[in-house]
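Attaching the record inline, Q. Sequence:
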Amino acid sequence: MSTHTAVGFRAQDGEPQRVQFNYAAPTTDEVVIAISHSGMNRADLMQLAGHYPPPPGASEILGLEASGKVIAVGPAVSRLQPGDEVCALLAAGGYADHVVVSEQQVAKLPRGISAAQGAALCEAFATAWFNLYEVAGIQPHERLLLHAGASSVSLAALQLAKHNHNPVFVTAGTDEKIAFCQQLGAEAGWNRRQGSFVEAVKNWGGADVIIDPVAGDYLAQDQQVLLQDGRIVVLGLMGGREATIDAGRLLMKRQRIQGSTLRNQPLPVKAKIMRALEQHVWPLLASGRCQVMIEKVYPLSEMKQALTQMRRNETQGKLVLAWEKS
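Structure, as predicted:
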């Protein structure tokens, strides 16, 4: 079987290390993508720090999403062909100039969406869709609380919620981020630097669903504002992995707390999510009813500056790396 050489970045002593690696021709349902842009996520920071290794069998190359052009397809591939401009939801391998991935994790770019936008949409909208509709099972008009409101996932969830008639309250770290979320349709918000969000959310009316990438001491506060039969979905541990919950409130209000990760989901789950995005979200993006929120596109040579900006939480949306083609 013939192999080809690619360039990518792996975690080494807390920093991205440039490496060469070989990849084989695509088998069965796989495609090879020549990557033009790589989406950046907080998971990349965790992997660099040694706290979030790739799932078993996945590449050590960083990166959970990318966009580019299909250059080769396996014999069973039916949806894609060489030359297609695509985006991909990955378990690993996005910080590279080529990636081999099942076609089930790949979609053609929505009409009018650029390659840079394509690299910024898969992880955010897949995470938002999966957790709102599959995990939490949110229904029209149920009330939604989004923490880290200006993150790419929350901005995607906010727009989907607005389209499906769900009132949204956001928390974030600056007044500017709150205002940005309100421009996109959030009814109200709270600057976390002003203290607990509990009274503000209660005064707003409480929440049926909470999407929480923070955990830590937020969980106890989440419980206080969660309505009867409410659901808390924990996506991350920005506030720490230890938490205290009120078991009495959990019982009497029939609350549900669910942990959720996307990266290690099996292929059939990711395939289902990608087809749902194509059916339900791609038309919203193509028509402008939803937007891909990009803070900045960095050239690959400025990767370290981009990672520093992400560490400092100085973003309203996604950071994207552009591969410089020779």
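The two ends are 27 Å apart (CA to CA). The CA atoms of residues 5 and 22 lie 5 Å apart.

More tomorrow.
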